[in-house]
Amino acid sequence: MSNSLDDVVSGALGVLDTHGLEFCSMRRVASALGVQPSALYHHVPDKQTLLALMADRIVADVHAPVDGSREQRALAVCHGLRDAMLSIRDGADVVATASAFRLGASGIESDLAEVLGDRDGARTLLLYVFGHTQATQDHRLASAVGVLEADPDLDASFDRGLAIVMRGLAD
């Protein structure tokens, strides 16, 4: 049975969630799908393209709501993005990397820029969300393996920082 592009992306996300980004190789994805690594290249030309597709899948359901104030809509995007990235191990690393290198087709930055009326403001918000979410994922992983104690304030600190960034953008 041959795999589709959707199967390849799903397999890659499964490997990512199980092993983390550091060990999410084309060889490991191929093994998870029961194929030779060369079979993946029928669907994606390289790992960067696969990472972009993974990032797009992670954030696929994140969209700016049509109702509410500009601030409410921007906050909804930021919270939706954070939740989506936290839903899979190293999701923030994948999405942040794809965004930094302008890989993939995700429209989150454009959606946020449209909501705010400010492309630089949208990028600033995204960088905050990426950074805080990456730190949260790192902390949760370290806590899960007993290196650090769990920090029950991570969600609240995200909201406090987000409010500060939003105030800065309003000025």
Automatic annotation (TrEMBL):
Ranges of the DNA-binding region feature: 25-44
- Supply the alphabetized keyword list: DNA-binding, Transcription, Transcription regulation
Indicate yes or no for the key word NAD. no
Q: Which Pfam families does the annotation name?
A: TetR_N
**What PROSITE patterns does the annotation carry?**
HTH_TETR_2
Q: InterPro entries annotated for this entry?
A: Homeodomain-like_sf, HTH-type_TetR-like_transc_reg, HTH_TetR, Tet_transcr_reg_TetR-rel_C_sf
What sequence ranges are listed for the domain HTH tetR-type? 2-62
Does Transcription appear among the keywords? Answer: yes
Show the Gene3D superfamilies listed in the entry: Homeodomain-like (1.10.10.60), Tetracycline Repressor, domain 2 (1.10.357.10)
Q: What is this protein called?
A: AcrR family transcriptional regulator
Recorded source organism is Aeromicrobium panaciterrae
